[in-house]
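Check the record.
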Amino acid sequence: MKIFTKILLFVIFISVCMEKNLYASEKIKIGLLIPLTGKNAYVGNSIIKSIKMAVNKINNGNIEIFPKDTKNNPASTLQAAKELNEQGVKIVIGPIFNKNLIYLDELKEMTFISLTNKTMKNPQNVISAGVNSLSQINAIIKFQKLKKLKKTIFLVPDSHYEDEIKKTIKETNIKIKKLHVYKSDPTKLTKQIEKITKYKARQLDLKREIKKLTNSDDPNKEKKIKRLEKMDTIGKVNFDSVIIADFDESLKSITTSLLYVDVYPKDIFFITLNQWFDSSLLKEKNSQPMYFPSINYDNYKKFSENYHSQFNEYPNQLSIISYDLLGLIYYLILQNDFIIDEKLFVRKNKFKGAVGFFEIKKNKINHVLNFYKIEDNKFKKIF
């Protein structure tokens, strides 16, 4: 069967669509399921503003957006989705959080484009549009090949994300030396890292080397012993790179523990998952260089600046994805002759939006990510 693939920029969605009688009388109804109250209301409000930007960009008065409050609760999400259904909405951007998806399979005639990055156990009518583990690990595989990394270990926290990572490792067949699952409890973390890196054994090797020199006839042994006594360990670890599937302070705890056991980024590649250009990592000088896959940084900055110029605030990270999703949905609806059905996300397509490239096939969305290095107080693009 012939695969139809097309690469296009979000900014030319409009020019393509103008050839297809955009201003038909039929309204294009798109729902939004987002938190508008509670502690995550700022995320929902940021998404609404990004959707407004996208609607203005498309400039078609027939687009109608129907925002509903999920209240960050699965039951409330279902009720809001039912209200959208009653209003004739068949396609929805949202919900954001994975926990709010669980009841949506009751509305099989609707399609939900969730901003979650989790893909396991989602209802069949939910498409994950977040930067998922598959997208990230595919980018890491490319980096492994670029740097000829042969002995990568994978560190995964004992959390709800563990199964997702394990599934993706199996799907992608990424070459890793070993997968280690660790407990994030700081009181236990360092001992786990010691075990993984064979810290105690390397300490013993150091003591043996000092003893060997002490009993030797080496004329420079005193100088060599003084140098060794300043060290905690001797010898190399049995891996050339480490992938750390963690974020924020937990990530920093891992890198600190690695430094404590004499594993340094000048010797071993420190690789993490998508960090959304966390500026606090720029201050972690001892953990640099650090590498991670991500959406396109230049586009992300441009979007953020444009958003700030309009709303005098900076967007939540998910806003840029929701901005692209509106343009994507609009384009696919036009390609499908204004019919909103299960066929929208089946045919293979490749697009370039504000986040960068992403691919659609068989009701799945995967991002084709760039790769960055944190070094010298900068995010530097590798590819």
Q: What stands out?
A: The CA atoms of residues 17 and 331 lie 7 Å apart. The chain has two domains: 10-131+297-369, 134-198+237-293.
